[in-house]
Write a structure and sequence with these properties.
alpha+beta, Creatine Amidinohydrolase, 5-stranded antiparallel β-sheet, 4-stranded antiparallel β-sheet, 4 helices, 14 strands, disordered C terminus, Methionine aminopeptidase, initiator methionyl aminopeptidase activity, protease, EC 3.4.11.18
Length: 272
């Protein structure tokens, strides 16, 4: 069942989204060569507790995974792209780190992710991250009232292919609102003008993720961490959005470097 949210409910989701965006921006500043992944995890735990928010990851137990997830962040490094378990690992120069988080504030959820280079960037890694960001922008731009869900998916897939990347169809975006994962599934590749009609009040998380040289994935023994099957680098970008009568509204916009507040209605800035 798909629940369309009222304008007031979307405003409440935007409050959560602002916090998520600000915390992701903080974490991207903290991540540096020599920083332990667990330092990022504990930083996020403190900030979530201070805000009176609740992590949607803690105790999450889907059909995959080995036991309930007992962290508030997914931290995926290099060839890991989704659901990476925070662990005792010191970030190294040139690491490609993806940070994903979802929290609930007063019953309303927001979910977002970004990828970044720690230390010295490799051009190929910058291109990969840029592709996910451009695909995210394209998917958001396609989320117009009266359109179709396939328009979003097709826009993402077209960007991936234009950069020379293939798209895995096993994991993608999703509905969001009162819980982290709601209907509908938002694929990262599909045919335009097909699928669910997009009505004002629909709230979804759009999350393109690509591997540098494959569309196949594998799971670590922990049952959570998803990696590229060939060991190539990966990247992931995500925003929660609402479809309104006038177009898409980004709920998890991140502040610019050094900023302290966000406008949840504004477009994200794509970096490269």
């Amino acid at each position: 069942m798909i629940e369309l949210k009222s304008a007031e409910e979307i405003d409440q989701m935007a409050v959560t989204g602002q916090f998520v965006g600000e915390l992701l921006a903080e974490l991207s500043e903290v991540a540096a060569v020599g920083v332990n992944l667990m330092d990022l995890e504990h930083h996020a735990r403190r900030r979530i507790a201070q805000r009176g928010a609740e992590s949607c990851y803690w105790d999450y137990a889907p059909s995959f995974g080995r036991g309930p997830f007992r962290n508030v962040l997914c931290l995926s490094v290099n060839d890991a792209v989704l659901h990476g378990l925070p662990h005792d690992y010191l970030l190294r120069d040139g690491d490609l780190l993806s940070i994903d988080m979802a929290v609930s504030i007063e019953g309303w959820v927001a979910d977002s992710a970004l990828s970044l280079i720690v230390g010295t960037p490799a051009p190929a890694d910058l291109k990969l991250i840029e592709a996910t960001e451009v695909a995210l922008d394209a998917g958001i731009a396609a989320a117009q009232p009266g359109g179709r869900l396939g328009d979003i998916s097709a826009a993402i897939g077209q960007v991936a292919h234009s950069y020379g990347y293939r798209v895995n169809g096993e994991f993608g975006g999703h509905g969001i609102g009162r819980t982290m994962h709601e209907a509908p599934h938002v694929a990262n590749n599909a045919r335009a003008r097909r699928g669910l009609k997009l009505h004002p009040g629909l709230t979804i998380a759009i999350e393109p993720w690509f591997c540098a040289s494959t569309d196949k994935i594998k799971f670590d023994e922990d049952g959570w961490t998803i990696r590229s099957a060939d060991g190539s680098r990966t990247a992931h970008s995500e925003h929660s959005i609402a479809i309104t009568a006038t177009g898409p509204q980004i709920l998890t916009h991140r502040p610019s470097r050094g900023a302290t507040s966000t406008d949840p209605t504004s477009r994200p800035t794509t970096t490269s």
